[in-house]
Amino acid sequence: MITLNINGNQHEVDADPETPILWVLRDTLGMTGTKFGCGAALCGACTIHLDGEAVRSCSTPLSAAEGLNITIIEKATDGSDRVGAAVSAAWVKHDVAQCGYCQSGQIMSATAFLASLPSGSQPTASEIDTAMEGNICRCGTYVRIRAAVADAASNLV
């Protein structure tokens, strides 16, 4: 048994320690907000936070998460996290989502990035692009994503 701390709640999981976190979240625990995209950590759809750091859950084994705090999209966007709330509001304001499939991963990457910035700092477009690199949007809403991240940052000052 492996104990996972997901969104502040303890979950006992009986799974192989090498099982990717994504499959435990989705298949074992029924937490389906984190999406499967490519299975090779290339698209970013499966992004979650481990102790605040954005990681790809499709390639991160359970063993790497034991004892760490796992945050998934449901918690990041429930309004209880200041940065997550700012990102969520900016996503709506800038009408970022098209098909929406990549959005949980995009939001998780943006939230981790903004949370890592010194208080009051405003990222440049280049810094935002670098932070969001590896999150693929099939619909091509990158301009809106950049605008939403910049807007969220300005609202966190």
TrEMBL record:
Superkingdom classification of source: Bacteria
Molecular-function GO terms, alphabetical: 2 iron, 2 sulfur cluster binding; metal ion binding; oxidoreductase activity
InterPro entries the UniProt entry points to: 2Fe-2S-bd, 2Fe-2S-bd_dom_sf, 2Fe-2S_ferredoxin-like_sf, 2Fe-2S_ferredoxin-type, 2Fe2S_fd_BS, Beta-grasp_dom_sf, Diverse_Oxidoreductases
Pfam family, one: Fer2_2
Record-linked PROSITE patterns: 2FE2S_FER_1, 2FE2S_FER_2
UniProt key word Signal: no
Limits of the 2Fe-2S ferredoxin-type domain: 1-76
Keywords: 2Fe-2S, Iron, Iron-sulfur, Metal-binding, Oxidoreductase
Coiled coil: none
Full protein name: 2Fe-2S iron-sulfur cluster binding domain-containing protein
Species, as recorded: Rhizobium laguerreae
